[in-house]
Amino acid sequence: MLKWWWNIVPEAPARAGSATRAATVIAAIGLGGNLGDPPKTMARALGMLDASNDVDIRTVSRLFRTPPWGKTDQEWFHNACALVETRLDPHELLRLCLDIELKLDRVRSDRWGPRTIDLDVLLHGDFLSDHADLTVPHPRMTERAFVMVPLADIAPRAVVNLQSIADWASDVDSEGIEALSRDGNWWRDEVAPAAAETPA
Ligand code: A4P
Ligand code: MG
User: Fold this and answer.
1) Nearest Cα to Cα of residue 85 among 115, 114, 60
2) What atom of ligand 1 comes closest to residue 66's alpha carbon?
3) Is 44 tagged catalytic?
4) pLDDT in tens, 16-42
5) pLDDT in tens, 147-194
6) Residue 106 Cα, ligand 1 centroid: separation in angstroms?
């Protein structure tokens, strides 16, 4: 438990662009969608992440229904966040997320447009990167209630951009956001163990 907090609340200077392969780190993943059956698709994505040998789901937030942000003329979203323990470096974790999105019929059209599933690497240990292919912390995450409210469920004391996630969550406009589950077990109910899928 302590190790997780150390990993997502860096106490040592972050090394830009570096990550340790051998050790496991805690990463935070944001999930969202507004096409098809988003809770089911998000649950399948979590099941596929957990089925990977290199990723274990540690904690999942409650499931939320959220008003569309950025491009507002589209259906409301479902959103959640998860903390995972992983041996994958940030690039490998992003690749796994993109593979899972493809398997779940993600089609890329408009930026910020409708999607069956979106998996964002929000945080990865103390890794920092501002490269367009992989920006960590995820760009604009602290401005978005659909990220900060679920993330505050599972990592309120983690610090991003000099402020705790709990404080970011109370700063953002969370009007309209509604919790649809009492706890973070919603995804286990959606995916029967027998239907567990592998990512590759
Ligand atoms: N990329 C760079 N860094 C990352 C990262 N940390 N995690 C690159 C994931 N991807 C990252 O992403 C485009 C490329 O960004 C990836 O190929 C990867 O190399 P994308 O998912 O195809 O594009 P996108 O999601 O349309 O754009 P963007 O800017 O990532 O949008 P967001 O930030 O994901 O926002 N409103 C509500 N209520 N709920 C939502 O979930 N989502 C969006 C999309 C807009 N409005 C929303 C929601
Ligand atoms: Mg995205």
Assistant:
1) 60
2) 38
3) no
4) 444 444 589 999 999 999 999 999 999
5) 999 999 999 999 999 999 999 999 999 999 999 999 999 999 876 554
6) 12
* Residues counted in the chain: 200
196 compared with 44, residue with greater pLDDT: 44
**pTM strictly above 0.85:** yes
HSE-up (13 A, CA, CB side) for residue 18: 5
Is residue 65 flagged as an active site residue? no
Scanning the structure block, which residue is given the tokens 């990993």? 7
Q: Determine the distance separating the centroid of ligand 1 and the alpha carbon of 119, expressed in angstroms.
A: 8
33 alpha carbon, closest ligand: 1
For 22-178, which CATH superfamily applies? 7,8-Dihydro-6-hydroxymethylpterin-pyrophosphokinase HPPK (3.30.70.560)
Question: Per-domain residue ranges for the chain?
Answer: 22-178
CA–CA distances in Å: residue 92 to residues 87, 89, 101: 9, 5, 14
Query: Which residues share a beta bridge with 77?
Result: 66
Look at ligand 1, atom 46, and give the residue with the nearest C-alpha. 69
Pairing type for strands 25-33 and 77-86 reads: antiparallel
Residue 32 CA to ligand 1 center (angstroms) comes to 10
